[in-house]
Amino acid sequence: MIGAFLLVIVCSIKNRVVRRFRRLREPRYLAGLIVGLVYLYFFVFRNQMRSARHQGRGFEALASFAPDLVAAGALVLWGLAALLWLWPSASKAWTFTGAEVQFFFTAPVTRRSLLNYKLLRPQLGLLFGVAIASLFSGAANASAAGRWSFVLGGWLLFAVIMLHVLGANLTKAGFRARASKVPPLAWASAAVMLAASGAVIGSIAARAPQLLSLPVSEAFRAVIEASRSGIAAWALWPYAAMVAPVLAAGPAAFARALGPALAVAAVNYWWVLASDARLEEATVVAERDVIRGRRRPPKIVVRAAPFTLAPTGRLETAVLWKNTIQLSRYASVATLIRVLLPIALLAFVFGLNARAGSLVPVVLMLMFFATLMGPYMFRNDLRMDLPRLAVLKTWPISGRELLVGEITAPWLMLSVVVWFLVAVAWGLSPTWSAGPRDAIARASLAAAAAVLAPMLIAGQLLVQNAAVVLFPAWIATGGSRARGVEAMGQNILMFAGTLLSLALGVLPALVVGGAVGWGSYLLFGWPGLLPGAVVFSGVLLGEAAVVVAWLGRVLERTDPSQVEVAE
Amino acid sequence: MIVVDGLTKAYGSLEAVSGLSFSVARGEVVGLIGPNGAGKTTTLKCMVGIQAPTSGTVTIDGHDIVADAIAAKRRLAFMPDEPQLFEYLTVKEHLALVARLYRVSDHAARVPVLLGELELTGKEGALPGELSRGMRQKLVIACGLLHDPPVLLFDEPLTGLDPLGIRRMKETIVARARAGAAVVVSSHLLHLVEEICTRILILHKGRKVADGTLEQLAARHDLAQAGSDLEEIFLRATGHGEDGAAS
After folding, report:
1. How far is CA B152 from CA B91, B179, B236, in A?
2. Strands B2-11 and B55-60, how do they pair?
3. Is B105 within 8 Å of A312 when comparing Cβ atoms?
4. Could A311 and B104 be called an inter-chain contact, meaning their C-beta atoms sit closer than 8 Å?
5. Rounded to whole angstroms, how far apart are CA atoms B217 and B228?
6. How far is A289 from chain B (nearest CA, A)?
7. How far is A480 from chain B (nearest CA, A)?
8. What are the boundaries of each domain within chain B?
């Protein structure tokens, strides 16, 4: 049976590669490939060749830090595992594609064979991913031997993570599906995880008073020390065993670390196989979902609409309403945790030293991030709707109205986030030692930022949506993402084009707004910044109105058949 | 109500539709039939403004679909063969969105009636992913009928429907036509076309090869041997002999 599975895996890879080569006949992919290769040469391979001349330098540096890094890595792995066990939803690790269900579930194939196939299938991808990561990471500076240990160790690590995720999901499925008769292995697995977590948390909590009195860097070191001693060290041993091969300093160290890591991998493999019966239950659900067309990662959670849509009024509001609902239904508790956890951690770390003002640079950094990167991350506008252009084109709505409605949803959301961050930074600024001491100066800066940031967000969203309208085949639309060096090159070209368009668009506003702002600053001091910001925004708004009207007409003429959804 | 005049749609060197002209009056149900690749869906897409004609015009209730697109689109509804829905909007929200787009001020009163007619009562809070194929199709039709348009275009309207749903759908189409709507139904189901259509338009390789009532087509001298059997008329009109082989 393994032959049939290998056939699927090998043919899939072969066909994907052939398809990638074939699409190079299209100029956009060929141009993308050239740009991608140039980027890789200058930013990755050239550094590789340089570092090859200094072999061993990074390797030796790594060796001196390895024990601490292994301990820190073990702690991180344990944290992730604990989150996985607490996570309410199952991951996609055990779901099967429609074709897999169609062919394998109806074929005389044992569940165990299917499980082995699911474990085997992603291995090449994992290996490739780790190899690429080694090029971009610090491991690229290590010697050839160190690099190989990073790749092989990393591959093993991710393979075991995948196994553990699968095992945890099967165990959780066992708890859910058999409320009255939970399998003993599920209880045992949960008990082991609980005991290990209790040991780690207990060991660190025992030093809490000491940790709270230490500066941040020393507190981190003390936490790592706590994790390397006593019962915590035993609890974290499997995690440390998995991290050790990745950071092994040389072939001998790698060989020594490999044994324990393989032992942990074997235990996880046995655990997953022992949960084989529950795989069957779990996949039955997946199978039904696939057949009914219900597989739609990420899961949509029905929540109340943000506002009631009246049957009459501006048509842009209808599109805004739709897109706001879209965002609220795809955002989940998991998303919120992913966004808020790093912020909460930073706040905690800075709060340890009772210097609220120290948070201001972090908040400002987040504000800049939301302003400059938010428009690329929140895509609930035409970038998501373009694959449905055929539907949109049957609506009695002009291209201009559609475009405004589409852009307004991410604009409003990002603006609210930025305004919140501006308010937080302003609120904390009196205790910020590096900021201006004058209250009027701080208020003026905050007000100017609150006026400027939304306009910059709108400008970027407009450029992104314009790119989708003008070059629909060049931008990933819907939930799809093209892959490969050529796709990376395309993205680089589009990013450069976007930046150039934005710079050209902002220039007139910057000249006029800057002149007004400078003049009023000379006259009125800090409060004079505000008129400059308002004029800047006004000019940008005027430009945007002209561009939107033009783009709307282009959108009305766009043929849905020109829109290609990336593979 | 619908006037298609010299419609041509080309994709590069391929002409999917060539110089097609026909009109549909109020109360008429025109069946658009033809072999695969005949240009039926392309014709419908040009008629509703999804694709712009390469040449020729389409007029909906006196409004050109290209030059006066908004006014024309307000008067029509297109029900595609594959339900295209927003996976994150519930049934009720889809209808609210359509009500706003088409300015249906009394949608609160219309929605329960429409949902009842299409057997979607009780599914108001469901997402498209939670509906069966047939129910998704019904939702698309409910969205199309909400603003009570005078022009209705259906592309394979019976796909995915159960027997009761098929009967209801046929009744709905006929009832809308009797109420004065101009209806175009594109389908491969010849018995459906025979049953509900007042006129039949046969397309072949992008061109109109027959247009008229079943009686008119049966009376045409080149189709006379087919009698009043639509299947036989279709095969002969599209260049196939009595045994179905291309002639």
Report:
1. 21, 12, 29
2. antiparallel
3. yes
4. yes
5. 8
6. 9
7. 15
8. 1-75+151-247, 82-148
The contacts of residue A64 (CB under 8 Å, 6+ apart) are: none
Residue A400's Cβ-side half-sphere holds a number of Cα atoms within 13 Å equal to 10
Q: What is the dotted CATH code of the domain comprising B1-75+151-247?
A: 3.40.50.300
ipTM confidence: 0.82
Which token pair is A394? 């049957």
Contact call for A325 and B93, based on CB within 8 A: yes
Q: What is the CA radius of gyration of chain A?
A: 27
- Torsion sign across C-alpha atoms A542, A546, A551, A552: positive
Measured distance CA(B112)–CA(B122) in Å, rounded: 10
Sign of CA dihedral B64, B67, B71, B77: positive
Q: Taking a C-beta distance cutoff of 8 angstroms, is the pair A553, A398 a contact?
A: no
- The count of other CB atoms within 10 Å of the CB of residue B193 is 24
Domain ranges of chain A: 54-291, 315-562
Nearest-Cα distance to chain B for A306, in Å, is 12
**Surface-to-core class of residue B210, CB atoms within 10 Å of its CB (0-12 exposed, 13-18 middle, 19+ buried):** buried
- pTM to 2 decimal places: 0.71
Question: How many angstroms separate the CA atoms of B235 and B243, rounded?
Answer: 9
Q: Looking at A135-139, A547-551, B74-78, B153-157, which range is the least confident one?
A: A135-139
CB atoms within 10 A of CB A338: 10
- Whole-number Å distance between alpha carbons of A507 and B159: 55
Maximum alpha-carbon separation in chain B: 56
The DSSP secondary-structure symbol of B244 reads S
Task: Enter the tokens of residue A256.
Answer: 């020594």
B161: Cβ–Cβ under 8 A, 6 or more apart, which residues? B134, B137, B138, B169
Residue showing tokens 């005078």: B150
A376-432 pLDDT per residue, tens? 888 889 988 888 888 999 999 999 999 999 999 999 999 999 999 999 888 888 887
Across the interface, of A311, A397, A561, the residue whose CB is closest to B99 is A311
Alpha helices, H only, A333-378: 333-352, 359-372, 374-377
* 3 state DSSP class of B155: strand
What is the spatial distance between Cα A492 and Cα A487, in angstroms, rounded to a whole number?
9
Pairwise CA distance, residues A373 & A500, whole Å: 16
